[in-house]
Amino acid sequence: MGLIYAELELINAGDIELARRHYIGEEEIKRMRVNALVDTGAYMLCINESVQEQLQLPVLELRKGVNANGEIREYKVVGPIELKFKNRRTLCEAMVLSGDNEILLGSIPLENMDVLIDPLRQELIVNPEHPYYAQMSLKHVRPPKYIQ
Fold first, then answer.
1. What's the pLDDT tens digit per position in 63-119?
2. Parallel, antiparallel, or unpaired: how do β-strands 59-66 and 5-12 relate?
3. Contacting residues for 104 by C-beta, under 8 A, at least 6 apart
4. Is pLDDT at 1 greater than 90 in this prediction?
5. What does the pLDDT read at residue 139?
6. Which domains, ranges and CATH numbers included, belong to the chain?
7. How far apart (Å, rounded) are the C-alpha atoms in residues 7 and 37?
8. Nearest to 83 by CA among 10, 30, 14
9. Do the Cβ atoms of 10 and 32 come closer than 8 Å?
10. Which side of the chain, N or C, has fewer Cβ within a 10 Å radius?
């Protein structure tokens, strides 16, 4: 399977709240469209410094992360971000990669939006079992235990 990219809309969720409370107008909400690499090996959304700057996302904390080459580094975690893909949305935080590194869409936001990778078409798709709304499991369902 090759590399899979998805077009996403990233929105400063703090701005959404400010607009909801009428502190700023809807036109002042910072948002942008990006092309992100779908990376099921990453857990979180990872953005670069340029995206953080453009969306003016505040730093929430510093967190250590392990790169693909095994190197452990400290990264800024920013947010909140509203992430949209087709008819799906989720709220998340993002780790900030240095420079103009590629944006990565990790497994947690993928699962929250109930989207899947279609390996034949090599694209991200809305889960066909739930085409109109995201569905997620609230608990792990275990088969009943039978007492002998």
1. 999 988 899 999 999 999 999 999 999 999 999 999 889 999 999 999 999 999 999
2. unpaired
3. 36, 37, 39, 42, 45, 46, 97
4. no
5. 73
6. 5-126 (2.40.70.10)
7. 9
8. 10
9. yes
10. C
Closest CA to 19 of 82, 67, 96: 82
In three-state form (DSSP H/G/I as H, E/B as E, the rest C), the secondary structure along 111-124 is HHHCEEEECCCCEE
Q: Which residue has the tokens 């993002």?
A: 94
Rounded CA separation 119/49 (Å) = 31
Single-letter residue type at 112 = N
Torsion-angle region of residue 114: left (phi > 0), alpha (psi -120 to 50) or beta? Answer: left
Q: Which amino acid is at 91?
A: L
Tokens standing for residue 74: 């400290």
